Structures
1.
Amino acid sequence: MTEKSIREYDRVADRIRLHRQIDKSPVVIVEGPSDVLLLNRAFPHKWTFFPAGTRLVALQAVRDLNGWGTREFIGVVDRDFDDDVRECEEQGLPILPYENADIEAMLANGKAYSVLLDELGSSEKISKGGGVRAILQATQKAVEPIARLRRANFENQWGLAFDKVDVASKVDPKTLQLKLQPYCAALSATVSHDPAQSLLLDYATGKKTPSHTPSCPHGSEPYYRGRDLLAVTGVALRALAGSCPRNITDAEHLAKVLRLTATAFIYHSKWGSELVEHLQADASDGK
């Protein structure tokens, strides 16, 4: 932990404590501005949102505030593929991670994904492909090897640069299957081929397995990174499920569409109810 990161943590928690001197409304600590936009649209409550910048900073702010005895706040973060969130949950800290690995994965497993496909795709092609459910299952299957590699990367501290590899370019547009050898080769190249692609292939295919398989306590499965799935979805929307141009099927663009679409659903979701209940219960306990 660097001196700079410690100052960042203190700044978020101190900013919230100062804010509380003039505004007693419940506080929701999130990772970034996109979380604020989604949750602010979805929940018509008088909450104050504080984007921390990163998940690490958000979790530390939660620890600080909890240690000071601050009430009526919660941290909303991605679970990802490491153990940080699980450790915070075991400590009883006031956090509510998104279901699955992150916000996009949670939304993709709900109604918002169907709306996204129906709106951007071709009803004829989607029907020919077996329907929305079949396409979702195909995209989920494609990213399962990436999920295994992400966990293995954390456990082995390889430092793989996943964001430098274009997932969509490694997907067969006719079958939506991930081309494992080219993907692992590209991923290995981000760390000067150490580990070698052969070892990554062993993890991708399940020949080798991480010591712990990440999972969602809420039962959202299979477990994956949302933007990985959206990258494959983009490939589907350009061929099997539609005829969209590449510029509107980029994973980042689809993530924005998915979050906007989800506004109508997330409030009434089980996760949304838990968020509301937590903040309301905390407020009642504090009276």
2.
Amino acid sequence: MRTIPEPLYSEVFELTFEINLAIETGNTAVQAEALESLRELYKNRLKAGAPDPFLTETLADCTTEPSEAAELYRLAIEQAASFPGEPIHTKQIGLARALVELGESESAQRLLAEARANASENRDKNALQEIEWLLKRVTA
């Protein structure tokens, strides 16, 4: 497994913590502000030529628009190829969720099969449970 550089990890953690707390408390203004800060961090890293699949995936996780989330998950999967040890199964699961929301169940099923293999390889029991839950939803 890849270790996320500490400054990036801390900044992303703080912003996602703010987003989640704002969601829990119904503070849409703080949620929007923290999400915009996360977007700016993402854009600044791209401009600097230093994209990171962890950041891209996290932004996708926080994005409410399924088509935008799908685009970000796809990009995170592509970026992961340049980061040895970066897990892709979590990104595949996120992409599959977005595809389900977009009505692309067949694509989601194929992707979940790949994600299952990758999650098994990484011995990620939580991801495997989520994959099974999504597969039931897709095939129902």
